[in-house]
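Retry 2 of 3 after timeout on previous attempt. Resubmitting structure tokens to design endpoint.
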């Protein structure tokens, strides 16, 4: 779709809303298969975020026109996803290789659809995709660990736990790349706004009206790392139990995952009793390997907290100090005052992250 491929320029020049309003009512019957539906959801999601936030947080659009709302809702329904930009869009589906035969690494990757924020925005999504890639051996280790648990094979379970710990450490190393490729001012002043949803968001307190889809405004959270399957899967496998408030939010975020991802987490929860098994086994190697996983997970969450401090807390203070930076040449770079202490998913971000970190640490076996 031409509009999606020129999204950044249309938003920056305040032309996206008028271009969307000219569109005919789009139909999805010509879309063939899951891949085309996922691509359509990515493009419609990004267009919607641009449409809503084009004029900034204080002038957000409250109505999504039917020529966008209707096909967006139909594609979302076909995929089992909500009609809002989710982690499965902007991270899992928003990448392409520059050289199709080349490696899956930062210099050989580009986004399919670019939101405002230039290279920092593109790199934010690509680095997050690299974090997801680093989690692949961990997902495989969860499968191997559950099989070992069911078969009573302690040696295989130890190796699976060691592989999981190594994968989580690799996720942290991939996340570190963010510091060199994403500007905190641009993330805070631009990117974050275009990831924000319309649930628990003071900028759109009643939600967004999807024209000819619903008679009342609908409320959906924005894109959030909590919508990633990986860490929720690891928590379930390791038996990490969060506070009720945090657990309720994480469970709600599962409704923003592809249905098969949500089902996988539920299956891991149903099958894994690894923590109870290790606590009763009295096997030093199992306990040591388990604690390696918990320590790696705690360190990853600690690092996430340090990143949020730099990209949100410190960035907010800097923007307050000099009001508006004129760098990067766009009037989109404004203080996200109504979002300062909240994540794009609608959480009180630091309290949430510290609580999740602390309950992870508490899972260590002494």
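Retry 2 succeeded. Sequence:
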């Amino acid at each position: 779709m031409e509009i999606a491929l020129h999204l950044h320029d249309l938003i920056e020049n305040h032309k996206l809303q008028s271009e969307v309003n000219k569109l005919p009512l789009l139909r999805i019957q010509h879309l063939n298969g899951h891949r085309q539906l996922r691509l359509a959801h990515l493009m419609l999601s990004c267009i919607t975020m641009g449409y809503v936030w084009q004029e900034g947080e204080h002038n957000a659009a409250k109505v999504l026109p039917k020529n966008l709302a209707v096909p967006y809702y139909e594609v979302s329904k076909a995929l089992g996803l909500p009609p809002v930009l989710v982690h499965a869009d902007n991270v899992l589906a928003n990448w392409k290789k520059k050289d199709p035969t080349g490696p899956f690494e930062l210099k050989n990757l580009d986004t399919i659809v670019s939101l405002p924020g230039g290279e920092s925005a593109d790199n934010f999504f690509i680095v997050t995709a690299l974090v997801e890639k680093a989690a692949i051996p961990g997902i495989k280790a969860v499968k191997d660990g559950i099989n070992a648990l069911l078969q009573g094979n302690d040696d295989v379970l130890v190796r699976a736990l060691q592989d999981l710990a190594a994968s989580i450490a690799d996720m942290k190393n991939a996340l570190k790349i963010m510091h060199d490729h994403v500007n905190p001012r641009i993330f805070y002043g631009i990117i974050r706004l275009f990831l924000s949803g319309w649930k628990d968001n003071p900028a759109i307190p009643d939600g967004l009206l999807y024209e000819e889809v619903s008679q009342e405004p609908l409320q959906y959270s924005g894109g959030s790392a909590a919508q990633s399957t990986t860490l929720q899967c690891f928590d379930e496998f390791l038996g990490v139990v969060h506070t009720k408030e945090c657990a309720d939010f994480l469970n709600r975020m599962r409704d923003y995952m592809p249905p098969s991802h949500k089902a996988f987490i539920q299956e891991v929860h149903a099958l894994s009793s690894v923590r109870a098994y290790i606590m009763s086994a009295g096997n030093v190697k199992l306990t040591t390997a388990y604690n390696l996983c918990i320590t790696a997970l705690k360190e990853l969450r600690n690092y996430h907290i340090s990143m949020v401090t730099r990209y949100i807390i410190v960035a907010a203070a800097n923007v307050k100090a000099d009001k508006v930076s004129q760098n990067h040449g766009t009037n989109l770079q404004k203080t996200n005052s109504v979002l300062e202490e909240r994540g794009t998913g609608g959480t009180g971000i630091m309290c949430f992250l510290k609580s999740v970190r602390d309950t992870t640490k508490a899972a260590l076996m002494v």
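Attempt log closed. The two ends are 56 Å apart (CA to CA).
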